[in-house]
Automatic annotation (TrEMBL), chains A, B:
It comes from the Bacteria. This is LacI family transcriptional regulator. Keywords: DNA-binding, Transcription, Transcription regulation. The lineage of its organism: Bacteria, Bacillati, Actinomycetota, Actinomycetes, Kitasatosporales. Gene3D superfamilies: 3.40.50.2300, lambda repressor-like DNA-binding domains (1.10.260.40). Residues 16-70 form the HTH lacI-type domain. InterPro entries: HTH_LacI (IPR000843), LacI/GalR-like_sensor (IPR046335), Lambda_DNA-bd_dom_sf (IPR010982), Peripla_BP_I (IPR028082). GO terms for molecular function: DNA-binding transcription factor activity; transcription cis-regulatory region binding. It comes from Streptomyces glebosus. SUPFAM superfamilies: lambda repressor-like DNA-binding domains (SSF47413), Periplasmic binding protein-like I (SSF53822).
């Protein structure tokens, strides 16, 4: 124990080098290098002496040096929007599983929906010489990545497309899923349907709004602009948007929530609301089937999004050099009760 | 677009070097190095020419080289147990926020509760020369880390303690929280209380079981071994454990769930159960207050765990070399209904 404590106190003490190992093992530097890099030409006895010296000194190979020599690092980067959004958990894990199956380390971090932070994080990962990147973009201009891609960093975008560069992308069918959700509410008799979505500059928010409008128009229904609210998914913002739509002489009788962050707040608002209001949420979420009423959702397959993106990335790393691909993962409407509530008399 | 596509196709094309920049700018290598590293002694005009060459060639400094020269990398590693467990989301984000406030990049990955995978990931991060590590351990022997710590990698354990080495650790009060949960059920009249927890080798599972037993003993209640089930938190395992405890002539009248993974499955089992059964879960979770009945929990402050661990880490990186610290974060019982259900007549 005290060894470690002492170790802690010489935090910036120098690491043992191959020279130290060679000296202790009584062999040449080249011999140590052969053992460390698993090259032939070392007798079993010598290899044992070197291994003993390595163990005794706690020598570790410095990958920074190896990266400089060899180029490939067997690591990929994943840039998420928010590490704490449950939607990204299964996506994150799926990417890691694929990386692991290819013997690669996953390095990740989040942009917190800040384009500058995305660029900073992406370039920091590039500077670490990751072999490839899976990016859930916050920015809408990725020309800053072109030199990295040209220099050999494979890049796949997921959940949202790249901006102003051409790269592989894997998306959910946000437009189609939103159409399904709103058509479902219309089929249950609703005419005044509110949409609360994420910030309009976010591709998925924009696509889901487009799906909402398209479904309303297809049913010959007007869209009162007071029924549409896009913005941050912070609970306060969503709560006030929902409260406004539910007030007045002509309140909405149904809500379409643009993602799981919006839905969970909408569920809270509706739980306190005097009249029953229908709700369909984009994204499934844990326990959605156990709240009362159970929540009808348009489910995305987050794990499949991540798995597909990672597979595309390793396909590039394995040498595929055809034109960038755009893949779309279908969504699925799951009726559970909240989306089948008829319009209340206002 | 096609530029990028071509870029993609020469994926392993060589990157521009400082030499290329020097040639294009018509200056010496040392001048380029001065500009890249922000050193003085370059005229504004020369600096502009170098910057233009850097932009034109898409040159990026290679941090692997800088790391070899300077030692510090301004990056820390976080090793989680499961990237998809919602408990770790706020912890992950809190560590990232502290790292960011110190200008450090967060690199993370998950052990999937596999000790070998933890060691592989930790050593891979050490080989990348992270300055420090925050570890939620899956292993119970961390002597493999002693050489890294001695070599200068600051290390803080969170959620679970280190095994067989001495290091900073930040824990929730699992023992006290579990006692509170079980005492709460006893106070509501329960005598036959089941405990379903995570794998016994996991510190928190062990501590929560100890809290359960201590509370039962303190109330003079026997513990039938058929009321205790530890193991993986996979839904099937938890479902069968709960079903067994709820069956037979002397079923449990209350369940204490050892973590949020167990609780969500227990909620599903009890939703289908004919008799009302009380439930208290360790860990709060989203919508716990909106399921019916609302779930009484022992809440941990995951964000505070992560924040405290990261602050301890940077305290070490700032040179603190006192003995390793052990900090305990209190838990909080939140009564919501499921934990206040009286015993049903069996």
């Amino acid at each position: 124990m005290s060894d470690t404590a002492r170790g802690t106190s010489r935090r910036y003490g120098t690491r043992p080098t191959m020279k130290d190992v060679a000296a202790r093992a009584g062999v040449g530097l080249k011999t140590v290098s052969r053992v460390v890099n698993g090259e032939p030409g070392v007798t079993p006895d010598t290899e044992r002496r070197v291994q003993e010296a390595i163990t005794a000194l706690g020598f570790r190979r410095n990958d920074s040096a190896r990266i400089l020599r060899k180029g490939r690092t067997a690591s990929i980067g994943l840039v998420l929007e928010d590490l704490a959004d449950p939607f990204y958990g299964p996506l994150n894990r799926a990417v890691e599983e694929v990386a692991r199956s290819h013997g690669a380390l996953l390095i990740n971090g989040s942009s917190a929906e800040d384009p500058a932070r995305e660029q900073e994080l992406v370039l920091a990962l590039c500077a670490r010489r990751v072999d490839g990147l899976v990016i859930i973009p916050a920015a809408d201009d990725h020309r800053y990545l072109a030199p990295e891609i040209a220099a050999g960093i494979a890049t796949v975008f997921v959940d949202r497309p790249a901006g102003r560069i051409d790269a592989d992308v894997v998306l959910s069918d946000s437009f189609g899923g939103a159409q399904d959700a709103v058509a479902h509410l219309i089929a249950h008799g609703h005419r005044r349907i509110g949409f609360i979505g994420d910030q309009p500059r976010i591709h998925t928010a924009h696509e889901r709004l487009r799906g909402y409008r398209t479904a309303m128009v297809a049913a010959g229904l007007p869209v009162d602009e007071s029924w549409v609210s896009l913005g941050p998914t912070a609970p306060e913002r969503v709560r006030s948007a929902a409260t406004t739509m539910l007030a007045g002489p002509q309140p909405v009788t149904a809500l379409f929530a643009g993602n799981n962050r919006v839905t969970v707040t909408a569920v809270r608002v509706l739980a306190d609301h005097p009249r029953p209001v229908a709700l369909v949420g984009f994204d499934d979420f844990e326990l959605a089937d156990l709240v009362n009423p159970a929540i009808t959702v348009v489910a995305q397959d987050a794990a499949r999004l991540g798995r597909t993106a990672a597979q595309l990335l390793f396909r590039r790393l394995d040498g595929a050099d055809d034109a960038p691909r755009r893949m779309e993962i279908p969504t699925r409407l799951i009726p559970r009760g909240s989306g089948e509530i008829p319009p209340a008399e206002s």
